[in-house]
Amino acid sequence: MGNEYKPPYTITPAIFNAVAEIGELVGRYTATTEMRLTPTLRRGNRIRTIQASLAIENNSLTVEQVTAVIDGKRVLGLPKEIQEVRNAFAAYEQMEKWNPASQKDLLTAHGLLTAGLIDESGKFRSGGVGIFQGKQLIHMAPPPGRVHGLVKDLLSWLASTAEHPIVTSCIFHYELEFIHPFSDGNGRLGRLWQTLILSKWKSLWAYLPVETIIGERQDQYYAKLGKADSAGDATPFIEFMAQILKQALEKSVTMEVAVEVTMEVKRVIEVMKGEMKRKEIQTALKLKNDDHFRLAYLLPSLAESVIEMTQPDSPNSPTQRYRLTAKGRNYLQMVGNKA
User: Fold this and answer.
1) Where in the chain is the domain with CATH 1.10.3290.10?
2) What is the 3-state secondary structure (H, E, C) of 244-284?
3) Does domain 261-334 have CATH number 1.10.10.10?
4) What DSSP state is assigned to residue 96?
């Protein structure tokens, strides 16, 4: 195939629209989300990501057990499953150092994910492999002699493609599963590498729990992989994964905004209509006590940056009005309301 290899896929209207919607969401939420991604939230998201990715591969450990393993605590569980958690955490912690188009980094990542679990850890498989659903063979991977060349071509395409990172990440994820270059750990590595590709575009993707959404729709995930196999084309999988990525972004932002605002602040957001005077907001909230409105509603809303003054340099101006900020509008959109 050589360096001119191009994976088979088509940019359908569904893919085009999903990419546009994700791009808009990322542009709108990047600043707010990254500010809210405290070390604690980042760690929590990463733990959920690891637990979900391993659960897809039948690891039975819960989020609480995964957390305990990462914290170095004793956990009652299968040694193999505990080792999978340690390996996955080590891999995700190293992720930002890797180049998505590097074969060396790909092998290093596989080595971390499968250390102590398989003989060919960090190496391409030496034998044939098939993917079964029960007793039924649903995919026979290319023979081992072709693996190195197929991976080389895929990485060369990844390094040179001008496609949007959303599309690129989905294609790479599918193609890696199709080639199945390793004796085990292909699913874990494919999901990790998609996150890596996306994080090189926008860093917030490194901490969005995409795998959690995949886990919730696991049957569809495998069905779309199978449909793409049957078609000899990645398009069905791209369409599916683009929706997964959009849902993961929306869910993460909704959780973070919801955690940060009080019920009083939520009520302020919900009554805001364009630019409003202080008294108009108070009336819309049906509050009679001026001090209570100011202390419990207005000032916290300003502090949380969900509303802003139209004249911030003259806070006591008689013509002062208030309006929703981007964060306030984001919250409304996330809960299904309209500003």
Assistant:
1) 2-259
2) HHHHHHHHHHHHHHHHHCCHHHHHHHHHCCCCECHHHHHHH
3) yes
4) G
DSSP secondary structure of 122-146: TS--SS--EEEETTEEEEEPPPHHH
Q: What string of DSSP letters covers 218-245?
A: HHHHHHHHHHHHHHTSSHHHHHHHHHHH
3-state secondary structure 41-90: HHHHHHHHHHHHHHHHCCCCCCHHHHHHHHCCCCCCCCHHHHHHHHHHHH
Distance of CA 16 to the CA centre of its chain: 19
Structure tokens at 207: 């901490």
> How do the pLDDT tens digits run along the chain, 339 residues long?
445 789 999 999 999 999 999 988 887 666 555 555 566 667 888 898 999 999 998 999 999 999 999 999 999 999 999 999 999 999 999 999 999 999 999 999 999 999 999 999 999 999 988 776 667 777 788 999 999 999 999 999 999 999 999 999 999 999 999 999 999 999 999 999 999 999 999 988 888 878 888 988 988 998 899 899 889 999 999 999 999 999 888 776 665 555 556 789 989 999 999 999 999 999 999 999 999 999 999 999 998 888 999 999 998 899 999 999 877 887 776 665 444
63-71 long-range contacts (CB < 8 A, ≥24 apart) are none
Query: Cα(134)–Cα(253) distance, rounded to whole angstroms?
Result: 38
Delimit the CATH 1.10.10.10 region(s) of the chain.
261-334
Is CATH 3.40.640.10 correct for 2-259? no
Question: If you search the block for the tokens 């590709």, which residue do you land on?
Answer: 197
Q: Which amino acid is at 136?
A: Q
